[in-house]
# Entry
Amino acid sequence: MTQPTDIRGEHLCHALSLAASGMPVLPLRAGKVPFGNCRRCTHNACGGRPNMKTSGPCTCPAPCHGWAAATTDPHTINSPTWAKAWREAGAMAYHPGGAGLTVVDLDDADAITWARQTLPATQTVPTTRGEHWIYQGAMPSANAVRPGVDIKSAMAYARWLGPGTGTLTALPDAVRALIVKETAPVRPVAIALPARGGNGPCPHRTPTYLARGLAMAEQRITEARSAVHATVYRTFLAVLSTHGRCGCLTDAHAARLFAAAQAKGESARHCTDAWANARTALGM
# Structure
């Protein structure tokens, strides 16, 4: 493999070294943010990548799609399509989950004190304002799990700040428990259903189709990691569009969707508004 030229800077040298050890890496712009999508992927024209829902690398040859660009492939890292990014890079990041790691990002002194009193000692890396505590083992990522504490693992990136000190230890249950939220009680709401189109079985959909559609809708809401409001509305719209006119959609079906939305933090009012807006959009 050819050696990187000086113009690409030390970030590329570190990237190749980390990639050789199995750490997926990517360049960051000034401000610790990923590079924007390439021309063919601008405004998500590529349709996104299925791997954005998992932990696999992006298939685009340029460092696109944020954390999903992280790779261990030296040919990709040292390729012409990445050269401009390395020249302009303000920092380097890695995908902890892709390396089987979890980073507990402690943003301030209070968070560090909490970690020292609560979590087992592990490898630590100083940051600008606090510390990264790194554990062996991957888990879902989450922000603000408690004051000054973020979890960076699967589907997230962490800035590379050096190897740190201490011995890497196994991911403890105390860290996994940080992302488990108590489910708030679901408030009962009045759900307005479209007028029934007729009696008897659905003329164009089987009961199995409806059951599968409701299960998929619940899953779509439950798995939403961002834009929950928009996801709930689009899901309500899809369900009503497919099942709302034939008379098979019942209060119990709608209540399941509302419960899934409220479990994601949506209020009863937001659920009712999203349902009403979906009905209006469909002329129901």
Observations:
- The two ends are 63 Å apart (CA to CA).
- The longest strand covers residues 101-106.
